[in-house]
Recover the amino acids of this structure.
């Protein structure tokens, strides 16, 4: 794992280790698959061995607590060596026959990339031979050994735009929203509602709020349960503007601009008072309407929450393990609230890392994060941080994907004024519950622990609080 | 790769497998699983199977040699429990990058082994091969040999890259690795005439601990479990057991058979699920141990214990009869579990409206036929849509299945219970059967069903 040296001018990268321990990172094809799952009636396919799909399936099922349509080209040793064209063809025909999807999204894997399959060429041949395959087929190259989850997501969205977007006559008030993979279905729904409340007509791509928001459809569907329609994707070239959330979406937004001329605005984050202000000011200018009263009230409520909560945030040391855009969102917001970002580990290179380099943000795994989080008050990462948090004896806030040991992962909202206020209360309550209360013997020289983080001398005074920690962090 | 394909062929030729014996030579060569259908396949790969089979060995460092996908997308996601070491829950992977793909990943792998030994000091490192590293020709067998020699610690190659086949094949290849490199390499501190191995039991949700106290009461020692809650040393010295029980269908039948051939350890196939199967298992263990020289009173003591435990279990289960009589269960699971649970459920008046037999052997099917009579609804393969329709039409009151089909039931607003490897409840032994029935009762009697099935107020006028 070689760190991009140029990014870390303030914090030299530690000696590269050969073995990743307790991975933070997940691979690109899964990010691409999730992006495809935000398209209505879609069926994602991983071009690889069937295990690639099985692992992804289990991961998403446990996180979203939903059925996940996800297929495989079921490559084996022989077909890998001979080339996967036949398997892709069989997969497409089978899926068409059984599920009749509105769109098929293919993502390659490490296996088929190592072999060097010419998937684009295969698809041209298959298309020519099978005119009955009348749905759009999008292909994204996502080798497992390059990049991480959010890269795969961004590439798939770019691929969808490249395949399906076309220029159109501008429709007044129509706006594209390109959310990064770090936005939950709840975030996406909140953002869509905010944009709509300005009288604008949003098209969200991909729209996880339509497919993975957790609802009970009237009938069985073998494909995604909702999302951006293929027809809507065809109309994004006619929008007035594109709003992209997260640096990972910049390239997709630029490709869309290049193809259709729709101007783009990238928001690096939507969590935090000033970050939300930027969004509302932009939407007001774009729509020519004042910010609705509802949101003025929400802003005031957020300001009040910050005033109430800041006592508990100031000086707290936080360790975060997350993909770059989520790391930036949370890290920058925590700094807004007076916390110290004491350790920050991420999965893949991003321009946002430079902004966090002063805090020592770097590529790494949960072993690195655990080592650096020893004196922290809070660990923030996905559910795989549960073992580390327990060993450290500090609370764990589950953020990112996968979250398999808590309910409602997809419903949490942290964008906008209201989302930021909810997050302020959630994190503030953790700090409140885990403050260090003085005990009679704390004045004894050498006994003052200052926290439960693992100081051996602090054991008797902190025993009760540490038990609380465990009840929070244990699965 | 040639060594690997020979091993694969050998595994396909398993002579102790009843299903295999019924095949022609040509069929046998094709392997024990149905050919994977692109675009219509489900289930894990061989690597997944190997990991399932071995990861429950708790004090070993399990190192996955490959790109981040194979470990990063799947680690710490199974419910095998440990009574001690937790190292098995630590995810280790070489997380190879593009440069490794071009120039080979062996150097990184060697350094990774070295780092793990330095930092975590495990009794052994298991190195799992994956598709990409197999394809670029990384020779993990040679590398593990060199690393073992260099570091003086067992470094064991688990050569089951995903693309060689199914999860079941991976189980067997994992077993081959144990036979080749681990079993018989150490000696137990002491032996007794009551030492047994349990093969193919993974201690999911702690199930082994529902069985072990009964064995202990009889004076029977589990010398090694393959691989639930096992330690490396136990597996390495498991060749001194006097008898073995093979559970979990045919997943590790090659291990049981070869240990019988090499070390003279007789084995039987049994199950801990269901009251009568649990009793049969205890009786058979006692019988085999006595046949190998254990004092004959073991069988009498076993009968006494079985009588006591059965009486206790049936009386506890009987309490559920009034609540569950006539309830209809759809049972979707693989292999042995079907018939062993069916009998116990029927005993308390539950009706089995269908059971899947996709992974069952011919004998399994015969037993189901015998237990369920002519009305047996054996389901070879059911699409999720058909399953949904069946449940939506209220032809079953509850579905018991694996997590994969969970939401088919829940979205049809029908109770569902997890009986596969990600489950949180343990269902083995006498207590486990009671626990299963208790969970069925809890699921069926939850008051939400009456609420969630009520139409929305605005749907009452026929407008939805």
């Amino acid at each position: 794992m070689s760190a991009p040296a140029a990014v870390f001018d303030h914090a030299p990268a530690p000696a590269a280790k050969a073995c990743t321990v307790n991975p933070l990172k997940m691979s690109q094809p899964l990010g691409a698959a999730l992006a495809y799952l935000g398209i209505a009636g879609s069926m994602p396919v991983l071009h690889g061995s069937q295990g690639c799909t099985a692992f992804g399936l289990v991961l998403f099922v446990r996180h979203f607590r939903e059925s996940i349509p996800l297929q495989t080209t079921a490559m084996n040793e022989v077909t890998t060596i001979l080339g996967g064209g036949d398997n892709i063809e069989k997969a497409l025909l089978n899926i068409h026959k059984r599920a009749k999807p509105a769109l098929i999204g293919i993502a390659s894997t490490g296996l088929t990339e190592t072999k060097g399959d010419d998937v684009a060429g295969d698809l041209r041949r298959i298309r020519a031979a099978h005119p009955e395959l009348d749905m759009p087929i999008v292909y994204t190259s996502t080798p497992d050994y390059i990049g991480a989850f959010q890269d795969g997501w961004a590439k798939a969205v770019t691929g969808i735009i490249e395949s399906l977007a076309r220029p159109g006559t501008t429709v007044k008030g129509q706006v594209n929203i390109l959310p990064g993979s770090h936005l939950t279905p709840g975030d996406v729904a909140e953002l869509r509602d905010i944009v709509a409340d300005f009288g604008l007509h949003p098209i969200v791509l991909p729209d996880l709020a339509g497919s993975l928001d957790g609802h009970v459809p009237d009938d069985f569907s073998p494909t995604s349960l909702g999302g951006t329609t293929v027809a809507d994707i065809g109309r994004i070239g006619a929008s007035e503007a594109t709003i992209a959330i997260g640096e990972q979406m910049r390239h997709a937004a630029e490709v869309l601009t290049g193809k259709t001329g729709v101007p783009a605005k990238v928001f690096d984050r939507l969590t935090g008072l000033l970050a939300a202000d930027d969004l509302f000011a932009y939407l007001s200018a774009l729509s020519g309407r004042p910010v609705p009263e509802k949101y003025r009230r929400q802003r005031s409520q957020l300001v009040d929450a910050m005033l109430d909560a800041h006592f508990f945030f100031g000086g707290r040391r936080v360790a975060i393990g997350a993909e770059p855009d989520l790391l930036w969102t949370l890290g920058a917001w925590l700094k807004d609230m007076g916390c110290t970002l004491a350790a920050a580990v991420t999965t893949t290179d991003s321009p946002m890392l430079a902004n966090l380099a002063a805090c020592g943000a770097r590529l790494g795994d949960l072993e690195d994060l655990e080592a650096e989080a020893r004196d922290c008050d809070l660990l923030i990462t996905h559910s795989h941080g549960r073992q580390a948090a327990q060993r450290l004896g500090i609370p764990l806030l589950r953020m990112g994907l996968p979250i398999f040991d808590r309910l409602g992962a997809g419903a949490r909202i942290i964008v906008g004024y209201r989302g930021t206020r909810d997050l302020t209360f959630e994190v503030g309550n953790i700090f409140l519950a885990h403050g260090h209360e003085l005990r009679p013997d704390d004045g004894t020289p050498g006994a003052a622990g200052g926290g439960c983080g693992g100081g051996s001398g602090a054991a008797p005074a902190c025993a009760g609080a540490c038990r609380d920690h465990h009840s929070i962090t244990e699965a | 790769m040639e060594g690997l394909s020979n091993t694969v062929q050998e595994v396909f030729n398993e002579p102790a497998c009843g299903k295999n014996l019924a095949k022609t030579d040509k069929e046998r060569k094709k392997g024990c699983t149905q050919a994977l259908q692109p675009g219509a396949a489900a289930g894990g790969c061989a690597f997944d199977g190997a990991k399932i089979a071995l990861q429950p060995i708790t004090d070993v460092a399990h190192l996955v040699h490959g790109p981040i996908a194979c470990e990063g997308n799947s680690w710490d996601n199974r419910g095998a429990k440990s009574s001690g070491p937790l190292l098995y829950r630590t995810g280790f992977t070489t997380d190879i990058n593009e440069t490794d793909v071009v120039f080979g990943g062996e150097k990184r792998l060697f350094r990774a082994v070295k780092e793990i030994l330095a930092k975590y000091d495990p009794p052994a490192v298991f190195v799992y091969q994956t598709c990409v590293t197999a394809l670029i020709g990384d020779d993990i067998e040679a590398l593990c040999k060199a690393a073992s020699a260099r570091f003086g610690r067992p470094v064991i190659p688990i050569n089951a890259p995903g693309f060689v086949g199914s999860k079941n094949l991976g189980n067997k290849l994992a077993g081959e690795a144990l036979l080749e490199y681990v079993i018989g390499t150490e000696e137990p501190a002491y032996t007794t005439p009551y030492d047994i191995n349990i093969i193919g039991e993974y201690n999911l949700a702690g199930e082994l601990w529902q069985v072990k106290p009964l064995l202990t009461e009889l004076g029977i020692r589990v010398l090694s479990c393959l691989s639930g809650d096992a330690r490396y040393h136990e597996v390495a010295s498991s060749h001194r057991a006097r008898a073995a029980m093979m559970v979990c269908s045919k997943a590790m039948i090659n291990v049981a058979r070869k240990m019988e051939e090499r070390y003279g350890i007789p084995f039987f196939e049994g199950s801990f699920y269901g009251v009568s199967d649990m009793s049969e298992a205890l009786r058979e263990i006692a019988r085999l141990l006595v046949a190998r020289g254990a004092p004959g009173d073991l069988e009498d003591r076993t009968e006494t214990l079985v009588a006591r435990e059965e009486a206790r279990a049936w009386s506890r289960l009987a309490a559920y009869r009034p609540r569950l009589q006539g309830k209809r269960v759809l049972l979707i699971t693989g292999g042995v579990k079907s018939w062993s649970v069916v009998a116990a459920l029927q005993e308390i008046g539950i009706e089995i409206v269908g059971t899947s037999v996709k992974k069952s052997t011919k004998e399994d099917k015969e037993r189901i036929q015998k237990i369920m009579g002519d009305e047996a609804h054996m389901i070879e393969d059911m699409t999720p849509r058909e399953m949904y329709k069946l449940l939506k039409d209220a032809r079953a009151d509850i579905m018991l299945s694996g997590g994969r089909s969970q939401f088919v039931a829940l979205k049809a607003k029908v109770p569902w219970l997890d009986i596969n490897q990600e489950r949180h409840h343990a269902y083995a032994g006498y207590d486990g059967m009671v626990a299963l029935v208790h969970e069925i009762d809890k699921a069926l009697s939850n008051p939400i069903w009456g609420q969630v099935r009520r139409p929305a107020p605005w749907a009452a006028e026929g407008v939805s």
